[in-house]
Specification:
Blueprint lengths: L4 H12 L4 H12 L4 H8 L5 H38 L19 H15 L3 E2 L8 E3 H4 L19 E2 L2 E3 L6 H8 L4 E10 L11 E11 L4 H16 L5 E8 L2 E11 L4 E11 L1 H6 L8 E8 H9 L12 H5 L6
Parallel strand pairs: 1-5
Antiparallel strand pairs: 2-4, 3-4, 5-6, 6-10, 7-8, 8-9, 9-10
Length: 333
């Protein structure tokens, strides 16, 4: 079915007479929806010869512009009508005030605050203000951390580049800044956001929070690392939390491990952080003697800890608008 100018004229008159948003949406779908008159007319162009197709396409584009303009004007007109109705409403000033919703510190901030308190008690200093940059140099995010040039994390598919810089993929990018600015012994923690090219799902979001812990000294060993991790897990979750250490690989630590915690309800292990002894190349790249100094480092996802503590099943709940859920999350209730 081909459409002529009279059809468009009649259609515009109907659009101009709509009084509600629902009626306007019905008119839009009638003309521009997947099965709308104009949509079907454009599909039918394929059956015409070339010269006729060009002529009809030009007419249809003009018709489409007129319909779209009428829809826009009617939308503004209806919006103004609805606004006027609201402004003309009589308010009953004798009604009691609505109960104010009691707010609470966000679960992510609660976990950060408690971790900050724990590491402060153990003599660590937070450098979240001085050495904490969302937009980082590629050298700090990769090269100085012993990540090779051909590592897949350097690709455009996994990292957001901004010119010669990038959005950091881990808070470990703060390590080179701290190591180049400070002299050992170093006991540092950094809290911040990181950015990954991840599709959101129950356990992943493209922007999330991490804590990086770094300890550099002359006599640091793996026992110090394990004691620190075990202590902060007990601090958050209590002595009943079961943990296990698995051998792993990270370019910036050697040896490397991943730490899992046992979830009784799900009857499975959940990985919560990666850790290891700082690789000698990282210490050397940042201007220190790896024969004189050793250290450990680990990074932990704050959202993962919050999900685990509050019993959340989907990380996106932490970024939703469920005020009742978020207000009910109290780390020390």
């Amino acid at each position: 079915m081909m459409i002529n100018a009279q059809d468009i004229h009649d259609g515009i008159n109907i659009i101009n007479q709509t009084q509600t948003e629902a009626d306007l949406e019905s008119a839009r779908l009638h003309w521009l929806g997947k099965k709308g008159l104009l949509t079907n007319a454009f599909k039918a162009l394929g059956a015409l010869d070339k010269d006729e197709r060009v002529e009809k396409a030009k007419s249809l584009n003009e018709f489409k512009e007129k319909i779209q303009a009428a829809l826009v004007q009617s939308k503004l007109r209806i919006s103004q009508i609805l606004l006027n109705e609201k402004l003309n409403q009589q308010l009953d000033m004798t009604l009691p005030a609505r109960d104010a919703i009691k707010g609470n510190t966000h679960p992510i901030s609660q976990v950060i605050n408690q971790l900050h308190r724990f590491f402060e008690l153990r003599g660590f200093t937070s450098y979240s203000a001085e050495h904490n940059f969302d937009v980082e140099e590629e050298s700090n995010n990769f090269s100085l951390l012993n990540i090779p040039e051909n590592h897949p994390a350097r690709s455009m598919q996994d990292t957001f580049f901004i010119g010669s810089q990038l959005l950091r993929t881990h808070v470990s990018a703060s390590q080179p800044r701290i190591l180049k600015q400070l002299n050992p012994p170093i006991k540092a923690v950094v809290f911040g956001r990181v950015y990954r090219s991840d599709q959101p799902d129950v356990t992943h979001v493209p922007v999330f929070h991490q804590m990086e812990c770094l300890y550099i000294d002359k006599k640091c060993h793996f026992g110090h690392l394990k004691d620190t991790i075990d202590a902060f897990i007990r601090y958050l979750f209590g002595h009943s939390m079961k943990t296990r250490y698995r051998s792993s690989y990270f370019p910036f630590t050697e040896p490397s491990v991943e730490i899992d915690v046992w979830m009784p309800e799900e009857k499975q292990w959940l990985e919560i952080l990666g850790a290891g002894m700082v690789h000698p190349n990282v210490i050397k790249n940042c201007g220190h003697d790896p024969d004189s100094f050793r250290g450990f480092a680990f990074g932990v996802g704050i959202e993962r800890l919050a999900m685990l503590y509050f019993g959340l099943k989907d990380v996106r709940q932490l970024y939703g608008a469920d005020v009742e859920l978020l207000s009910g999350c109290d780390l020390w209730q």
